[in-house]
């Protein structure tokens, strides 16, 4: 928890610093494309603040009102970030249109491009930290924040390349066109992020490879049982809930069946970090002969 919280706080600090650099680059040049890049950084700071709140809240222990914990708050946070991204894209598109119909003088200079480029490098490094650490700690809000920063870096590189072309060609309409492309790219990233987050809120099953791993573990660690069926999984932030029915011989004692369940739960917990397994034990006449065969 402490590490995830420190990373989330670091995102707020880095996002604020990058915003200041990009806004300074815009003030040096007056480019609407660089303005759109700076405006996206406002969303980055807001996203970092939302991620910070989600990381803090998701770590709260389960209580009587939330017996399964508070992990899903990270999905809500990711959806909120997606909405912010979409709003930023619409705002950038608006500025691009006004700049196209009523162009303003633009002072393209190397200093402004250099400042913006430095901000993009910082963003790129921090995006790598967020995604790698977010996956390590199974935090969807940190991963979402990092993926948004990757989109920001890609947009910034496109803007820098385009602004350089404007400086070389003198075609100022390209500045507005670049801002529009940035808006479309941000809009797409916001949609993808919200789509994935809605999947978590709708209790989509764990990834196919995770489900297959769980099946293999049940088969290998369930010695003494006959079969398992009705396997269900659902990720919720850092936790993966697993439940299934385990069929055992009718004359097996409760203690023996409990020992098998403990062995399976421990094996799943080692292979799937954060797994919480619930097993319903059934006698052999409940076998469906279509589930997981225990080796």
UniProtKB/TrEMBL annotation:
Main subcellular location: membrane
Keyword Membrane attached: yes
Pfam families on file: Cation_efflux, ZT_dimer
One cellular component (GO) term of this entry: plasma membrane
Cation efflux protein transmembrane domain span: 11-202
Entry similarity comment: Belongs to the cation diffusion facilitator (CDF) transporter (TC 2.A.4) family.
Name of the featured protein: Protein p34
Organism, scientific name: Stappia albiluteola
């Amino acid at each position: 928890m402490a590490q995830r919280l420190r990373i989330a706080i670091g995102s707020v600090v880095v996002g604020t610093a990058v915003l200041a650099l990009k806004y300074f680059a815009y003030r040096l040049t007056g480019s609407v494309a660089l303005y759109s890049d700076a405006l996206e950084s406002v969303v980055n700071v807001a996203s970092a603040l939302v991620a910070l709140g989600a990381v803090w809240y998701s770590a709260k222990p389960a209580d009587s009102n939330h017996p399964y914990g508070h992990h899903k708050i990270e999905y809500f946070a990711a959806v909120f970030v997606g909405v912010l991204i979409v709003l930023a894209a619409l705002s950038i598109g608006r500025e691009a249109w006004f700049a196209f119909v009523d162009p303003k003088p633009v002072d393209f200079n190397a200093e402004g491009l250099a400042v913006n480029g430095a901000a993009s490098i910082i963003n790129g490094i921090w995006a790598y930290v967020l995604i790698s650490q977010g996956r390590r700690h199974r935090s969807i809000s940190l991963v979402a924040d990092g993926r948004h920063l990757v989109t920001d870096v890609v947009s910034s590189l496109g803007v820098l390349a385009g602004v350089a072309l404007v400086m070389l060609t003198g075609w100022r309409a390209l500045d507005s066109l670049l801002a529009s492309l940035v808006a479309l790219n941000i809009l797409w990233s916001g949609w993808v992020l919200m789509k994935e987050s809605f999947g978590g809120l709708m209790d989509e099953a764990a990834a196919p490879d995770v489900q297959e791993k769980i099946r293999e573990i049940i088969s290998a660690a369930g010695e003494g049982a006959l079969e398992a069926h009705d396997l269900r999984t659902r990720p919720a932030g850092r936790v993966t809930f697993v439940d299934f029915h385990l069929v055992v011989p009718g004359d097996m004692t409760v203690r023996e069946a409990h020992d098998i369940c403990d062995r399976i739960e421990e094996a799943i917990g080692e292979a799937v970090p954060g797994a919480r397994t619930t097993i319903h034990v059934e006698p052999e006449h409940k076998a469906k002969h279509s589930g997981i065969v225990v080796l």
